[in-house]
Amino acid sequence: MRVTRRVGAGSAKGMVERAENDRPRVGHGTVDAEAAAEQFVAGLQAGHDARDADVLNAQFAADVVWGSPFGALVEGYDRLHPIHVRFQKRADGPRARYELRHAVAVRDDVVIAHVARLVLGPDDQPLPVGDDRDGPFSELAMYVLVRNDDRWWLAAGQNTPMRPGGALPART
Q1: CB 64 within 8 A of CB 76
Q2: DSSP letter at 168?
Q3: Largest pairwise CA distance in the chain
């Protein structure tokens, strides 16, 4: 049975119909997306642990586009790197652990990864998700990695704070 749904009814372009069974799957099975993303995550962790933005950002492309957890859009490595330098120099910056939550290759040279940055307490366990807007917070990021000359580069990232509420609870 073919099921169709109306999308955009009343829009300027009119009504669009699309058969549900025509929806493509974009996952691509020929690339080890998890390995590419884990390598990227290891670089982030090494940079964070060393409090060194040069290491943290070593895998960022020159034209990286970054969405901050506060809604700012930062375009280009030259604009983003000084921000990360400033954050990494803070002596009171939180300790964190990076965890790969999901990775999928959408092309042989493009991987989309979801990575959690979990703020750690004194016991090295992630702090619970909370509403404190002034304190350290964990976040979930979506990263677009692009392979260029057999090396994976961050093309785009979007960080989202983990907060209570929402359709599904955030997990640390």
Answers
A1: yes
A2: S
A3: 61
In total, the chain counts a number of residues equal to 172
Q: What is the DSSP letter of 69?
A: T
Per-residue pLDDT of the chain (172 residues; tens, 9 = 90+): 455 555 555 554 444 465 667 888 888 778 899 999 999 999 999 999 999 999 999 999 999 999 999 899 999 999 999 999 998 988 778 899 999 999 999 999 999 999 999 999 999 999 998 888 888 899 999 999 999 999 999 999 999 999 888 778 888 7
| pTM of the predicted structure, to 2 decimals | 0.84
Spatial separation of the C-alpha atoms in residues 136 and 138, rounded to whole Å: 7
- Residue type at 67 in one-letter notation: G
- CB of 49 within 8 A of CB of 127? no
- Helix H or strand E segment including 79: helix 77-89
| Cβ atoms within 10 Å, residue 60 | 19
Residue 31: enclosing H or E segment and its boundaries?
Answer: none
